[in-house]
Each structure stands twice: as structure tokens, then as C-alpha cells.
Amino acid sequence: MNANDASLFNVNVSIVHPEYFFIAGLTGVPYSNYYYIFLFCTYIIAVIGNCTVLLIIAFDRSLHSPKYIGVFNLALADFGETTALIPNMMRTFLFESQYISYNACLANMFLFFFFNTTQSFTLVVLAYDRFVAICLPLRYHTIVTNTVMSLICSAVWAFNAFLMASMYFISRLSLCKSNVIQSFFCDHGPVFRLACNDNSINSVIANLNTGLYLIAPLILILLSYLGILLALSKITTWEGRLKALKTCVSHLLLVASLFLPIICIYLTAITTYLSPNARIISVSLAYATPPMLNPIIYVLNTAEIKLLIRKVFKNRSVPI
């Protein structure tokens, strides 16, 4: 089947939409199926890990606190992001079903970026929680309550839904240059660049979304930690400083796992040429690994969750 076959296109007035897109994926890479299987393994670990965190927080009343409301929302976003991405990749490349309908492509694009941006903003919410806990410890329980944290997280989900609604403008493009998407999923950039009419609005939206979900959250997180460092400098003992800083270790690791790979990819793409295959591998790893690592980081670095898991295994090991 010719990817540029004119019969694939439906014409509605002056706007041309392909009936199907062809997801190119890795090209000319031997044994690329093994890489997709590796990504599927990360998906399985991510699903098990995030579902475990969700269930632990949901059923253990001692974890019904503002911090863990934020962690619950992060685990939910991680689960949604990886589920919107990896299973479709498996169907596309392992089962040689690289064609996807126009509507399914846009739906997949919306869902993936909706959960992906929610991850970034939830890390900002968790940074706010740590900022208040360390800088205003005596007022923490009056400022950051369960109700306040629930409202903030609800606002994050609503804001991201509104933000992703801006992708409506992609439906106003005539995508008639080709129906081949040079990516491993329905990525916004590779799709709107297929337009043969003016796509400047979509380019602005792409840059705006990058600023809102990458640059703005990172700046807010850095500002919160600047305030935390100033507060720590006022603590007289090193033991007190380390004890307060230890509560931030999990969050800092989450921030590093999400933002550092994406920043490195952007800087590499700006400064040097990044081949399509290199871009696909680097971006897919940057999207697939944080949802897998996040629950592991929280289990290993959170005393409350480790204690609860120990209790569960201890109770199971007791003979009846």
C-alpha cells in the first residue's frame, strides 16, 4: 500500500485529512523488535509499581495526608501516560499494524500529552508541599490541608485538559504533504509539520506548551528549592539540615528522572543533528522510564511506605 496514495485522503471543503496515518518508527535498525519488547517490560514494571502505590495510599489511612495526595496523583498520571504510549507501540510495531486512523491518532495524542503535562505540574505541587513543610513548619498543617491539596490537584487536571484542548487547531490543518509520521507515536510536532497550509498557530502552540509543561514547572521547582536552601541555612546544626533535606530526596530524584532526559534531548537537537532513529530511541526512553522509576523511588525512599510493606510481608510470613 502506497503511503502517499491519494485514495487515503478525505477532502472536506478546503481541509484535507488523511483517513489513516502510517507510524514510521525505527527504520533500518536490525532487531528493533527487541527494543520494543524492552519498552514493554518497562511498562509492566510501571503498571505494577504505580498500581501498588495507588492501592497502598488508597487503603492505608495513615497515608491520607497532603503529601500522599500529591504522590497519588503523580502515580495516576504515570499510569495514564505509560498506558497511553506503550501498548499502542506494541500493537503498532510488534504486530505490524503501523496504520492508525486519523481520529484514533488525535485521541492518542491528546491522552498522552494530557497525562505527560500532568506529571510535570504534579511535581510542582509536591515541590510546594516540601517548601511549606520546611520553610513554614509551624503553619504547614493549616496551609496545606487534605482539602487544599485535593483542590490544587483537581485544578492541575482541569488546567491540563484545557491546555490540551488547544490541540483542536491541528484539526484545522490540511495534512496533505504525506501520511507518514516520522515518530513512534502520534507526536504533535511530526503531525502538524505534515500540513500543506499555514501551521504557524500550531507551531506557536507547540512552543507555548513546551514552555508551560517543561520550562515553567522547572523554574517554579528551582525557586521552591532556593527558598528551601535559604530556610536550611538558618538551621544551626548540620543534623537538622540533613534531616530536613532528607525529606526532599525522593522529590529531587523524581524531578531529575523526568526533566533531565528531556532537557538533554532538547539541547542536543538544538546544538547538533539528531537522526530520526536517535530521536525515537532517546525520546521513547525519556517518556517510558520515569513512570517505571517513580514508584521504585518512592518505595525505597519513603519510610512510611517501606514500613507498611514490611508489615504486610511480616503478617504473611506468620504461620496460621
TrEMBL record:
Record field: transmembrane: 34-59, 147-170, 212-232, 252-274, 280-301
InterPro entries associated with the record: GPCR_Rhodpsn, GPCR_Rhodpsn_7TM, Olfact_rcpt, OR51/52/56-like
Gene that encodes it: D32-7
PANTHER family the UniProt entry points to: OLFACTORY RECEPTOR 51F2, OLFACTORY RECEPTOR 56B1-RELATED
Record Pfam families: 7tm_4
Gene Ontology CC terms: plasma membrane
Organism: Misgurnus anguillicaudatus (Oriental weatherloach)
GO molecular function: G protein-coupled receptor activity; olfactory receptor activity
Keyword Electron transport: no
Localization per record: Cell membrane
Topology in membrane: Multi-pass membrane protein
Keywords from the UniProt entry: Cell membrane, Disulfide bond, G-protein coupled receptor, Glycoprotein, Membrane, Olfaction, Receptor, Sensory transduction, Transducer, Transmembrane, Transmembrane helix
Domain of life: Eukaryota
PROSITE patterns registered for this protein in UniProt: G_PROTEIN_RECEP_F1_2
Annotated G-protein coupled receptors family 1 profile domain residues: 49-298
Name of the protein in its database record: Main Olfactory Receptor
